[in-house]
Specification:
The chain is of the alpha+beta class. 35% of the residues lie in helices and 26% in strands. A 3-stranded antiparallel beta sheet has the order 3-4-5. The protein has a 3-stranded antiparallel beta sheet with strand order 6-7-8, with helices on one face. A two-stranded antiparallel ribbon has the order 1-2. The chain is flat and about 55 Å long.
Length: 237
């Protein structure tokens, strides 16, 4: 078979998706929080249940949550379904991370896949699950917001301010000019139409944070700017 530029382009994008998930897993997110760093302790709550390496060399991991509740049973089923959905695609990765806090166990899953409908750019689908350690029941977003005295406005303002900062930094780095891409254009490139949607709450270091993914690829080569992006934000009040 001869050289095919479109197939080569797709393979390069697939490698890019691997880089993104590697950065998410090993640069931005801590897997353990609390007073102890004993890995044996945290393995009592979350463990690796299955692992698969695709023909392209991408490794997906399936976690299992070891708490006793109907909520945990349901979430483990959802996670397992997402994992096997990733395995059905050769250019997808499924992985996870977790955080143990004083009162909560938080787990985040990442499903990275190449989207043929989006110029073969990788998409990152993020889901978070927060549990009470004592009961194993899921914690609602409202319960988390109330406990940490955080409002939805705090979250949307934090995300808005961060995107404004990114836009100004990209202008300074000359990815584009204001004439080429104003702020509305920038938001369209990120796939962001609202600051308060697709928010995934997560507890880490006994503080409430949130995940909010967005598109990092564009015709301006912005994936280089976002090479260390983990989509996890501290909440500003």
């Amino acid at each position: 078979m001869g050289f095919n530029i479109e197939e080569s382009k797709k393979y390069i994008i697939i490698i890019g998706s691997l880089i993104i998930i590697t950065l998410i897993l090993f640069v931005g997110v801590s897997v353990f929080n609390g007073s102890s760093s004993n890995n044996t302790t945290i393995k009592e709550y979350v463990s690796l249940d299955n692992e698969h390496t695709s023909t392209l060399g991408f490794t997906s991991q399936l976690p299992i949550i070891n708490l006793d509740s109907t909520d945990v049973d349901r979430v483990n089923t959802i996670i397992e379904s997402d994992y096997y959905r990733a395995l059905s695609l050769e250019d997808a990765i499924f992985s996870y991370n977790y955080s143990l806090n004083n009162n909560y166990l938080s787990l985040v899953t990442y499903f990275v896949y190449v989207d043929d409908k989006n110029n073969n750019y990788p998409n990152v689908e993020i889901k978070t699950y927060n549990f009470y350690l004592d009961t194993g029941n899921l914690v609602s977003d409202k319960e988390l917001l109330d406990h940490f005295s955080v409002t939805l406005d705090d979250i949307s303002n934090t995300f808005r301010d961060q995107l404004n900062k990114y836009y100004e930094e990209e202008l300074e780095s000359m990815y584009f000019t204001k004439e080429e891409c104003n702020y509305e254009c920038f938001l369209n490139l990120r796939g962001v139409s609202s600051y308060d949607t697709d928010i995934k709450l997560y507890v880490m270091d006994n503080e409430l944070k949130f995940f909010r993914n967005f598109k990092v690829y564009s015709q301006y080569g912005e994936e280089q700017f976002y090479r260390n992006e983990d989509f996890l934000f501290d909440i500003e009040k």
